[in-house]
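tool=predict chain=A
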Amino acid sequence: PLTISRVADIPLTVDHLRYYAGLATKIHGETLDISVPYAPKASFFDFTLREPMGVIGQIIPWNFPLLMAAWKLGVALATGNCVVLKPAEQTPLTALRLADLFAEADFPDGVVNIVTGFAEAGAALSAHEGVDKVAFTGSTEVGREVVKASAGNLKRVSLELGGKSPSIVFPDADLDVAATGVAGAIFFNHGQCCCAGSRLLVHKKVYEELVGRVSEKAKEIKIGPGMH
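tool=predict ok
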């Protein structure tokens, strides 16, 4: 976890928030040229107007506690919304510290809000009448419950749920490269990654050799406290 925090969780969070901070001043509507057949001499002024949705409830998992929060917060704040973020119960301190940093950056009170807790907190956030949208990242099972809870006031919902990402190895592949890639795809961050390569499809001609090489890669992994 320490290495991943240094090379991924923190720097990618910084990049993401900087991107949306720059984008915030570039979100605008458009004027459109239109014609109305039944009123050929009439004059119209047609335009699009982008408006904030309001209050966004956000529920995130624990696997990248800082980056997952940034992915949710960046776009919502850049488009003028207020947010109520519920971090995973395993990693609440990261989100609370992030909220402190938003306060130090002079964000107005009530714009970034953190609610910690277990499943009951997520259910309450999803069902709350004052929440205009829920954005959830997590398991398919919990995602179904979020949809049900959100239906009470027909709030909008966006879901990023569990998936299966296959790695495919053909018989003419460089097996050294393939073994390194396959091992990294499934073992990175203990396999707790949205795009983890949790399925491996291998041509039968190279199956035994590739499995052997991936097994050797697995034996090289050090098991122990992640702070070392």
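The CA atoms of residues 55 and 193 lie 28 Å apart. Residues 166-220 form one domain.
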